[in-house]
Each structure stands twice: as C-alpha cells, then as structure tokens.
Design goal:
With about 240 residues, the chain is α/β, with parallel strands linked by helices. The protein contains nine helices and nine strands. The strands form two sheets. The chain has a seven-stranded mixed β-sheet. It has a two-stranded parallel ribbon with strand order 6-9. Helix 6 packs parallel to helix 9.
C-alpha cells in the first residue's frame, strides 16, 4: 500500500477532454474529476472545437475557480476530428499518464481511481473501461442502440481478435509514451478511431487491462453518433482487417 502511494505521488495524469457544444456538461465533469481525484496530481486539458454554445466561456470561468495550471483550455477553430483532438491535447500534456474521456457525463469520473489503481497494480500500458464484462453495462439506451453497439463489438471481435471486450469505448488511461506511439500509427477518424487505437495497441503487444464501467447516455445536449458514423465504422472494420 505504501509503495502504491509513493508511485501515485510520482505520477501525474493529464486528462484530455475533447468538447463540442458541452456548455451544460463541462462544469459538472470538472467538479466530479476534482472530487474523485483529491489525492492525485492531475491536469485537465479541454480541447474545444470552436463550440458556438459558449463552452469555452464556461471553461474560462472554471479556470478562475481551479486555476489555469489545473484547467488548460486549448481550443481549435472548428471541428477537426477526435483523433486530432487527442494529438492536439497531447502536445500540451505534462503528465506521464494520459486519460481520455468524453465530456457528456457518459464516462463518470468516479471510475478514475479504479483505472489508476489497476495500472499501478499491474503495470499495464493501457487501462480501458468496458461495458461488456461482469459489473459493466449501459444505462439510458434503447434496445436498438444496445443491439447495434453489441453487434458492432461482436463483429469486430470475430474479425480482429483484439484481446479486449469493448473496442469502441473511449474511456481509457494510457502511459503517455504508449499513447504517442499508438496514435502516430492510426489513420481513422470519428467513431472508428477508438477501435483502431486499441487494435493497434494490441498488435504492438502492449499490456492492456480492463475495468468494468456503466456507460450512461448523455443527459444534456444531443448525441453526435448517426448513420454516417455507423457506415464509417463498417468501412474502418474492413480497413483494420486488411492492415493489422
């Protein structure tokens, strides 16, 4: 236990949160991260893609409360894709570990201590949240969306054998050096990007551990997943099948 505390004291966690029109969610996300990581050295890097709803104004108010050294606003002029948002955030990350999570409250910050503990216990290069093991699940989805998500994962598992149960999840903890390596070899955009990240990490032989999480559908705002993303997912699956 004492050794784990010493390791935690030496580590710093950079939490990259891409945003687009998350004015109603971002303050609560930030509050919950600070609540659950009281004894952890961390920074939050908000990568906002030119949200017209005033998300950046809210983040600037949060900087006044928590400090600009803990809340880093690193905006971009427009929507440029999830993968490039992480690359942009990485450029400003000072931690030796990086967490990627959504801003819409679908990824509850209460799981972050479990991610950190699992990494320290196992030495994993990546700890990923999963909906599809005992203790995990989904709340707020209708049956069709559950079937679509589950079917997408089963299809990918069958074709790609990635060694993880939840390919499309986007709540993960990485060693910074591992994320830099994996992200540099990824070419996909949008919904497929998370899948390519974990598949390529698995192919590279990185140690991956899983933590069961309950994914909660967004309360405020609208989902950015549509039919075009599902088509892109299928195209990406074929691409990964050929290239990995």
């Amino acid at each position: 236990m004492e050794e784990q505390q010493q390791k935690k004291a030496r580590n710093k966690y950079s939490i990259i949160v891409p945003t687009y029109n998350e004015r109603l969610n971002i303050a609560l996300v930030v509050y919950l991260v600070f609540k659950h990581l009281k004894d952890v050295d961390f920074e939050m890097i908000i990568v906002d893609d030119g949200s017209p709803d005033g998300t950046q104004d809210v983040v600037k108010k949060l900087q006044e409360v928590y400090g600009e050294d803990r809340i880093l606003l690193r905006p971009r002029p427009k929507k440029l894709g999830l993968g490039t948002a992480y690359i942009h955030g990485l450029k400003h990350a000072s931690g030796n570990f990086v967490v990627i999570m959504d801003a819409d409250l679908s990824h509850h910050p209460k799981y972050l201590p479990s991610f950190i503990k699992k990494q320290m216990e196992t030495g994993a290069s990546i700890v990923t949240g999963t909906r599809y093991v005992k203790g995990g699940g989904v709340h707020g989805w209708n049956l069709m969306r559950k079937l679509t998500s589950r079917g997408a994962n089963v299809l990918a598992q069958t074709l790609l054998w990635p060694g993880v149960s939840d390919l499309t999840g986007s709540f993960r903890l990485y060693k910074k050096s591992v994320l830099e390596d994996v992200i540099s070899s990824c070419f996909s955009k949008g919904y497929v990007f998370q899948m390519e990240m974990i598949v390529r990490a698995s192919r590279k032989g990185y140690h991956i551990e899983e933590i069961p999480i309950t994914f909660v559908d967004r309360v405020f705002g609208s989902s950015k997943l549509g039919g075009s993303e599902i088509v892109e997912y299928l195209k990406g699956l074929v691409y990964l099948l050929v290239t990995t």
